[in-house]
Inverse folding.
């Protein structure tokens, strides 16, 4: 993504009463509109739990190549601890780990590149016929466009988000408990600064349309 184009589009909404000036300079978007930082930013992730019958892997992808993982965050090595216990509960390190065996992982997001999180259950048994087993944390990347992840903020000194996925394993049941992680960095904007992200989301959409032509 061209950062100059991003800055130009954001400039068009600078006069809005939803003041983007309150947003930290390091982050432009972190949520279902996309993940985009204005400076290189390290984010620390921690796996909390999973529910469901599928073995899924959580990747980081660039929005322009949404099916091509650039980094593996967590992999479900076993589908669950015990069948039908707590809705097929999965925990770390029992069933889910980062590639190095840890329950935590980190990634440095590059400035001006739009990212998303991809939860991939592709090729797993019992998937619905109309599902390829993939969902993205960015709404517009899902086909059809839909919300498959929820971002909620926990008040801490550094700021922590809990991210919950609905994996479409039983269809789009919107349970948002299939794969749950946290994300933490001092550079992620708190909700009070996110009032203008609807405008940022619109700006990102405009950039995508321009790039498509």
């Amino acid at each position: 993504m061209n950062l100059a184009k991003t800055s130009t589009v954001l400039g068009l909404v600078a006069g809005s009463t939803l003041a983007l000036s309150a947003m930290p300079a390091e982050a432009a978007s972190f949520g279902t509109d996309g993940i985009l930082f204005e400076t290189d930013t390290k984010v620390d992730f921690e796996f909390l739990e999973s529910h469901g019958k599928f073995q899924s892997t959580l990747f980081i992808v660039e929005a322009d190549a949404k099916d091509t993982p650039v980094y593996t965050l967590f992999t479900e090595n076993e589908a669950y601890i015990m069948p039908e216990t707590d809705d097929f509960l999965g925990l770390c390190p029992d069933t889910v780990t980062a590639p190095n065996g840890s329950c935590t992982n980190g990634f440095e997001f590059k400035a001006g590149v739009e990212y998303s999180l991809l939860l991939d259950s592709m090729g797993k048994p019992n998937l619905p016929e109309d599902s390829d087993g993939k969902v993205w944390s960015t709404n517009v990347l899902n086909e059809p466009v839909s919300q498959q992840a929820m971002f909620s903020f926990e008040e801490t000194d550094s700021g922590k988000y809990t991210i919950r996925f609905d994996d479409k394993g039983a269809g789009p049941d919107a349970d948002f408990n299939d794969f749950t992680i946290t994300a933490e960095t001092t550079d992620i904007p708190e909700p009070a600064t996110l009032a203008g992200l609807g405008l940022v989301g619109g700006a990102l959409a405009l950039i995508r349309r321009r790039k498509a032509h």
Q: What stands out?
A: The longest strand covers residues 41-51. The helical segments are 3-12, 197-212.
